[in-house]
Amino acid sequence: MSDLLPYLIGGLANGALYGLLALGFVLVYRATSVVNFAIGEFLLVGAYLTYTFALFLPLPLAMLAALPAAFLFGIIVERGFVRPLLGRNVVAVIMATIGLASTLDGGAQLVWGPDLKYLPGSLPNLGFQTGEIFVSSRAVWNLLLALPLGLGLLWLLRRSRYGILVRAISEREVAALALGIPTARILAGVWGVSALLATLAGALLAVASGVGPNLVFLGLKVFPVAILGGLDSVGGALLAGFILGILEALSQRYLETVLPGFTEALPFLVVLLVLLVRPYGLLGERQIERV
Amino acid sequence: MKRREFLRKLGVGSLAALGMPYFATAQAKPVKLAVLLPLTGPFAFAGNAGREGFVDGVDYVNEVQGGISGRKLELIVEDTGYDVAKGTAAFNRVIARERPDELLFVYGDSTGLSKALAPEIARMGLPYSATSFANELADPKTYPTIFVFGPTYNDMMEALLRQIRLQKGRAKIALVYSNTEFGRDPIPYVKERAKALGMEVVHEEVTPPAFTDATPVVLNLRRANPDFVILQGYALSAEPLILRAAREQGLQAQFMGTYYSAELALIQRAGPTAEGFIVTYHNAYWYDTLVPAVEEMRKFRQRKGRDTSYRPTYYMGSLAVALAVAEAMRRAAGAGKLTRAGVVEYLEKLGDYNGLGLQRSYQFVNHRLPYTKLYRASVKDGRFNAITDWIKLA
């Protein structure tokens, strides 16, 4: 077990990041039915924002400063790209997010250049060793920041007035409007929170591995996580993030030596298997449509 | 002047006046070199540095060396986004647009793209090279017009294995490589060669080309407990993560890498954990001021008002290709053979040229340049320092 534990801790730390990113993705999908293909780019922009603030501020402050900036960025995206298309065919909105992804990729390169950036400074080292088990500082920070934030958001959605309004809009937007709920403002807020979550994930990644266009690849991980958890389940996104993180770690430990490269395909294989049994994901809401 | 004589002179004069521009245009027809590079996407940092090397090289050829025997060398640049489909489209666009007697060399991007284009390139008889050092491309029997401007990945591995043998005879080796053509290319060779040299490959780890957590990789390495770890198929994103995690977890193995890891950004990103990292590299570094090309290009860039601070290895590699291709074109033009076949012929005869010291020489052996040096990262100096002279690999 002491041999396996470091793998599991690493898996949980990765899972926390997957969960954080998937949370932002699911939140938007649940509130607006928009599949945001630009979620990887949200993460990229967030990482670059953190890098920019880190040029002037100590790293922890830079990470904090990047969050409201990311929230604002999410609102701008919603106002500029999404709101004009609301009420149109959902495919149009999806295509817009694909276009947005390309625009953000190109825009990020124009603004920050093609060179890989590394953050000046680092977060305080919280890594420790107990016996044979080493827990990296990265793992501690991931869990320390992602877990309370994810659970807090879940609580807010379940219990707070704002959360109830979001849920009401996601249930039936027209009825919510008729009841006087400020739908436009709340949906803009949802996009803002999604960008904020992606930025926190991006900042944690940037601290560990620097910033470069390859960060968008983590955006691809969102899809298996969100589908596994259930596209409309916020709690499912968090849970699926941890499940996939741990499964990847187990695969690294036991399968990688006999099946090199298998871990890369594992998330998609798991999703395929789970969908055969539960087409709406682990915690997704089963929808019955009259045809 | 009699009327008949006047008319004759007028006629000759008119013809000359009408014909001269065409004649002059034919004389000034440019020679073209097309480069397909990842100017956007995950390898944009390398692609843009490479583009800069080609721009400088071509400007230098035109402004200092007088072009290609009086003809201007023209550079065509296309973006591939490090995507085979996009790269193939860019290649087809260039081929459709340019005349075969003007477009005399194409430089492509990545092992995947080069392997995809190779049969078509062979069919067209088009001189070609790429950012890739894949073994399959250095095969003049199958691909008579493709050149690898450096050692192949197999050659690079050979150089590393020789160094391992020097340091510790029967060593235990681990291979960590990306699940890409770039990563997998030399693995069968290194496994076979290590065995032949009495070494043991104790672990193989295949990863995505970019990842964010090296903990499981290093945990697996710790279990295998190798003396040496060779990284292949990464371009600066994964190596610092692995090095940092390895040192954090007390792994004592010696880490090694190949050409695309030999960039100063690795030392900057990995910090103190980069100390001692050994790489293969076969061009000059920008700080090798004793190399004539470096001094020359510093002065040239200064004259042009361009930034003279450190230029990355990808810049140096592109510059080395541009100068050598121009030299082969110049020699082909001198022999009245400035055609695609002529460029191939004179690239094969370029053994007495060394690109102002950027390469040991352009003596191709099976269409690749089997020479490299080994460098060791020094964190104190913030650079890679040579630990060997040129190693001949064929």
Q: Could you write a compact summary of the structure shown?
A:
The complex is a heterodimer of chains A (291) and B (394). With 291 residues, chain A is mainly alpha-helical.
Model description:
The complex is a heterodimer of chains A (291) and B (394). Chain A has 291 residues and is an all-alpha fold. Chain A has a single domain, classed as ABC transporter involved in vitamin B12 uptake, BtuC. Chain A has helices at 5-32, 39-54, 59-82, 90-112, 137-159, 161-171, 173-178, 183-209, 217-229, 234-255, 262-277, and strands at 128-130, 133-135. Chain A has a two-stranded antiparallel ribbon. The radius of gyration of chain A is 19 Å and the shape is globular. Chain B has 13 helices and 12 strands. Chain B starts with a helix and ends with a strand. Chain B has 2 domains: 31-151 and 286-363, 3-Layer(aba) Sandwich (Rossmann fold), CATH 3.40.50; 153-281 and 375-392, 3-Layer(aba) Sandwich (Rossmann fold), CATH 3.40.50.2300. In chain B, strands 5, 6, 7, 8, 9, 10, 11 and 12 form an 8-stranded mixed β-sheet that branches. Chain B has a 4-stranded parallel β-sheet with strand order 2-1-3-4, with helices on both faces. In chain B, strand 3 (103-108), helix 4 (111-124) and strand 4 form a beta-alpha-beta unit. In chain B, helix 2 (44-63) runs parallel beside helix 12, helix 9 runs parallel beside helix 10 and helix 12 crosses helix 13 (340-347). Chain B is of the alpha/beta class and 394 residues long. Classes of the chains: A mainly alpha (291), B alpha/beta (394).
